[in-house]
Each structure stands twice: as structure tokens, then as C-alpha cells.
Amino acid sequence: MQGGVMDSLNYYYYANTNRLKFITDNVPASGYDGGPDHNIIDIDGQADNNYVYDDIGNLIADKAENITDIKWNVYGKIDEITRTATASVPATDIKYTYDASGNRISQVVTSGGTKHYTWYVRDAQGNMLSTYTADGNDPDLANLQLNQEEKFLYGSSRLGLITVKESVDGGPDNLQFYYDGRTFSLGRGRKQYELTNHLGNVLATISDKKFGVSSGGSSLISYYEPDIVTAQDYYPFGMISREALPNSGVAYKFGFNGKMNDNDVKGGYGLQQDYGMRIYDGRVGRFLSVDPLTHSYPWYTPYQFAGNSPMANIDLDGGEPKPSTDGTQEGQSQSTSQDFYNLRGDYTQTKQETWYWHAVGLRDAKGNLTKADWYSSEGYVNVLSTSLAAKSLGNELGLYNVAAKSLGGNSELNKQELEKFAGSGLNDAASTHFIAAARATANASNNFVSGKIEPSNFNVEDLLGVGALLKEGIALLGGKIASAAGTEARAALFSLNEGYGVFGKSGLRI
Region Disordered: which residues (predicted)? Predict the structure, then answer.
């Protein structure tokens, strides 16, 4: 195998902005052939003014990719992409729709004059459960043949998918199961399980088949080998560097950082990805629109990916860069940092962001479980404040006024959720954020019943970083436990891991 330079890129920007204008490549376009299957497409030299933006910084044209127009909605999501068809990318128009949470729920690709529909079915947390497709130009979608394409497999996170490809015609399922009293037939090979690294990058997928291998000429199976369906490597910012199985004919739906590939837009594998909050191009290492959280991170370019540290951080949804490995304890903290330099290359400062690990799945009023993940301080309070446990703690502390008492609720389920969370081993950070969450939930309910404010508009950021408030919450909690009658169990509930929680053998620590 012979190596060589594939890219030697120079980035040019519009004056006094962070907006990329065009890229030049010192390596000629003929210097890289796109891999054995021609699906690895790098960036080649571009003409001046290749990238065009609207007034607020959203990309609206990419001339090198034959994208003539991108329409954005007021929520920072792409509604429609218009492009000129090519032999490798035949799509001329791509439209998207979203649910109230901003998750993509449909896609319509017009290619060769025919519309190709895809619908995404999601759960309450936005996880993709299944996809359905239909093709045709009839404006009455009821006349099109609907097919279920995929179903997704989950444990605590996504494990893979099952390729279904079954017609949904309203009739009985056309599933055949044979059993003769001794044996039954079972079709394998439709499942794909993800093998990922610490960044969530999908490095390979394997099926539910296995191949027996004998050794020494024996007719007996010595061991089994997996059925590897796809395999690929990535450059640091996400472009695919190598396909280990280029002729498999299978392109997996997810790739770098575990995000969904939008292969219809630019051709090739993973050249554009949906991160939820924004759209990403891994060849350039930039998002297509301004970071909605840019006001909180003024030291970053608003188009950067993962704090420009893709080996250490992931970009969960196009927002802040987060730690790349899971935590081990509720409330565990970890910092991400980034060094910054001026235009002369002189070091100027290091910026840090502190994250908190939420591990315990808590139920909300609808029965949904909170997601295990790293959260900012504000985000940690937000996710805890949705839980029944926070409502129960608010009742324990007497934080609900008379009118709001019914909203707080003090059911047995709420108490069980509180006991589950408090018994999981909370450190100081988890305890103080939990108290802040209980107060946020109670205050929102109290204000709502008084007509002052809608619960959904309550801003918990005012509760963060206020030491007096957190101490007051801990003191209230301590007083409530001390005065609880016949409550050895209740007191034990808040006797968290010694040395790590708010309470130890010596009692309340503030």
C-alpha cells in the first residue's frame, strides 16, 4: 500500500468574520481517487466565494457541491435544500420537517423527477425507533405504497438496527413461521450491531450471523467468526479515512460520533451529518450554521466542532463539546478545556467548562426516563427538575404553597423515585443540584397557580451558582429529616455515601 498526501488545505474567510469563504487544496483533484468504492470524497480546491451565507450566518449555497439554495426555518433547522443534479448525486430537492422538540421526522428527496419519502418514528426522548418509506409523485400520500424499512435496537443506548423492508398495506402481517415439533426456521443477517469507540464513532457493524471455523482438518467447529457487515476508520474531525469492506454494498445509517449520515446531499459516506441542533461537514470540520450557544462561548468560532478537540470531546448535538467517556458516579464532575491564541499565534488564555454526570434514570410525570449524560450545571438542574423525585423532595421540604400542593404530588411512586435517587450514592454536587432542582420545580408550580408565570417559561439559571440558596436548601433538607417522626428509614434515606454526600456520621455538613 502506497501512501501520499491527500489534502493540503488553505482556509479563506470573509473579512472580519468567522464565515468560511472558500478552500484551496495544494494537492490536485486527481491525487485521490475516493477509495476502492469511490465513496470517500475529500475536499478539492474551490473557487472564490464558494460558500454563501445569509445575514445571520447560515450557509445558503455551496457551489462546489452544486447546492444553489438552502432554506432555514426560524429555529435554525434546514427546511429545504435545492441543488443541481449530477451523476453521483442525482437529488435536485430535499425537504425536511421536524417535531415540536426539533427532531427530524420526515425527509422528501426529489431525484430523477420522483419523490422519495422517509418518515422517522421517535420515542418521547427523540430516539429513533423505526423508519418508513414511500416513493411516488401522487399528492395523496394514502395512494403510495408504504414500507417499513428499519427498526432500531436499544439497551441503555442505541445498539444497532434491523432491516425490515416490509410492506405496510393494512392487511395481516405476511410473516411465516414454521415449526414441525422438532425444528424451526429462523432468518438471520438482517440485524446490524454497532461496534463503537469512546467517541461513539461507529467503526464496524456485525450481523447476528456467525461462521463456524474448524482447525486441523477436523469436522468439528473450533471457534466462530463474526459476520462483519461494514467497517471504516475516521480522520479526527470525522471524514472517513478507510473502508475496510468497500465492496459490501451496505452503507450503515450512522457514522462519526454515532450521528446519522445525510448521504443524499453530497454523495459519498458521511459527508454531511445531522447532529440534531445543527448540520455538520466532517471534511471541513465545521457546522453549516452558527452555534445557538455562541453567546456562552465567545472564545470559539460559532462554526467550530467539539471545541476543536475532536480526540477528547464529542459534539452531542451541535452545541457544547462534552467529555467523551461516561462518568462512574452520579454528580461526578469533569472539565473540558481549550487553549486560545491570537492571530500571531501567541497563547492568550485557557477556557474551561465543568460538566456533571447524571447516571440514574428518573421518571417524569409521563413515565419517561431521564437520559444518562454529561450536563452543564444549568442542564443538570434542568434534567433533575423534570423528575418525580424532585417533586417528592419539594414536598419533603415543604416548598409548595397551599394552592400548588396538588401539583407537587406526594404519591408513593414519587417517594419511591426519591428513595431510588437518594440511595444511588450522591456526592456534594449531585445533592446541591438536586435541591436546586426541587426548588425550581416548586417555584415554577407556585408561580403558575398564582398566575405569575407559565411553568414552561420558568428560568432555572437564576438558581445556579448561588451558594446561599444551595445552603438554604441543604438546611431545609436537614431540618426536615431531623423532625420526621418515626423516621429511621427516612433519615437513612438521606444518609448518603459517607464522605461523599451532604450527610456523614457527623451529621449535616454545609
Answer: 311-337
Is the pLDDT at 343 greater than 90, yes or no? Answer: no
Domain contains 34: no
Range of the structural domain that residue 471 is part of: 358-508
Q: Is residue 9 part of a domain?
A: no
Find the helix or strand (DSSP H, E) in which 110 lies: strand 104-111
Same domain, 256 and 110: yes
Residues 104 and 78: their CA atoms lie apart, in Å, by 10
pLDDT digit string, tens, across residues 156-179: 889 999 998 888 876 665 555 556
- At how many degrees (to 10) do helices 467-483 and 428-449 cross? 90
Residue 56 pLDDT exceeds 60? yes
Q: Concatenated DSSP letters for 44-108?
A: ----TT-EEE-TTS-EEEEGGGTEEEEEE-TTS-EEEEEE---SS--EEEEEEEE-TTS-EEEEE
Over the stretch 450-474, which tens digit does the pLDDT of each residue have? 665 444 443 444 444 334 444 444 4
CB 292 within 8 A of CB 58: no
Domain total of the chain = 2
Task: Answer whether 0.90 is exceeded by the pTM.
Answer: no
CA pair distance 11, 334, nearest whole angstrom: 33
